[in-house]
Amino acid sequence: MRSPDPPVASDDFYRTLVENASEGMLTIDAESEIVYANPAIEDILGYAPDELIGSSKMKIIPERLQPVHASALAAYVRTGERNIDWDGIELPAQHKDGHEVPTLVSLREHEYDGEQYFTGIVRDVTERKRREEDLRDQKERLDEFADILAHDIRNPLSVAIGYTEIARESRDDPELESIAESLSRIDDLVEDVLALSKEGRSIGETEPVAVEESVRESWRNVDTRGATLRIDSALGTIEADESRFRELLENLFGNCVEHAGSDVTVHVGRTPDGTLYVADDGPGIPESVRREVFEYGYSTTEDGTGYGLSIVARIADAHGWDVSVTEGIEGGARFEIVP
Question: Which residues neighbour 104 within 8 Å (Cβ) at sequence distance 6 or greater?
């Protein structure tokens, strides 16, 4: 079947397109007089087109900005040099009722009958600006919360570290060494999370990290009970934020022990293509929920928080890594990280 013929390229056709556009359009001449306004401009600035045509563009420019607009247009007409981004610049416009409207304006220059004209596509960005402001307020509240949380955690943490050091001076117990290491790890995590929350990032600076060293350190920082760790192959290095990488491993190990039992064996290895895996010999994860396990709040146990694997996914994503779960040893779970 032959496609229909295109519309006749007439002035009426193009005028219909412009007048039914959802974005405002204004055309001014080289003297800043408005020569055209489409109907959508009324939704943005409150003026009907016939209220603007024949007026100076200063009618819709806030008074404090009028000298800048006048000099900018005069300079361009004289020199042809642009001093703003014509593809999209945020400018406040004056609404008919007096309030200012944040707008995004794209400009184009054209000539008709030997005269120079400028057409602006005007978009109301009030809702976008409101969302940006809400996000800024949210970020400030989160920063304040992070400060309070870090302060409230550090007070009892400092006490615990102090008493542990006193106990180590009089007793040479390996358990006290493990406690001191765990408390130091908590202190590092608090510092990292506080710093990252201030910077709005999920990871800090990256560097080549020895994977096996991080694996063994992370294993010591998790309550692995009677679980066994096996290193299957040379692990090499990985470009990572070391602290956040260890946090990822700690959450994977904790997940293995929580769901596969205290007698689980956890294997860590590296495939020839560089994929890092953490696998266990537990009951595994059903294929139908393997995507869901990385979502916040998802847990298969009554006392689980549902945060461990979502933290793994967040840290991996921040590094630009892919993380997935498949069937592991004898039906167990196998988590794969592809740098």
Answer: 88, 89, 90, 91, 122, 123, 125
Q: Where are the alpha helices (DSSP H) in the chain?
A: 11-19, 40-45, 49-52, 66-79, 126-170, 174-199, 211-220, 242-260, 308-319
Phi, psi of 110 (to 5 degrees): -150, 165
| CB 240, CB 216: distance < 8 Å | no
- The number of C-alpha atoms within 13 Å of 141 and in the hemisphere containing its C-beta is 6
For the chain, the straight-line distance linking the first and the last C-alpha, in angstroms and rounded, comes to: 51
Assess contact for 286 and 325: CB atoms under 8 A: no
Alpha-carbon distance of 75 to 84, in angstroms, equals 12
Confidence of residue 1 (pLDDT cuts 50, 70, 90): very low
Give dist(CA 7, CA 264) in Å, integer: 71
Euclidean distance between CA atoms 38 and 57, whole angstroms: 14
Residue with tokens 């593809």: 87
Q: Residues 6 or more apart from 298 whose CB is under 8 A from it?
A: 289, 292, 306, 309, 310
Q: For 33-85, what is each residue's pLDDT tens digit?
A: 999 999 999 999 999 999 999 999 999 999 998 998 888 888 888 888 887 78
Torsion over CA of 308, 314, 316 and 319, rounded to 10 degrees? Answer: -150
Q: Tell whether pTM > 0.70.
A: no
What would the pLDDT profile of 154-197 be if each residue is shown by its tens digit? 778 877 888 888 888 888 888 888 888 888 878 777 776 666 66
Can you tell me the distance from the alpha carbon of 274 to that of 239, in angstroms, rounded to the nearest whole number?
A: 12
- Joined together, the tokens standing for residue 243 give 């602290």
Instruction: Name the token pair of 85.
Output: 């981004």
Rounded Cα gap, residues 25 and 41, in angstroms: 6
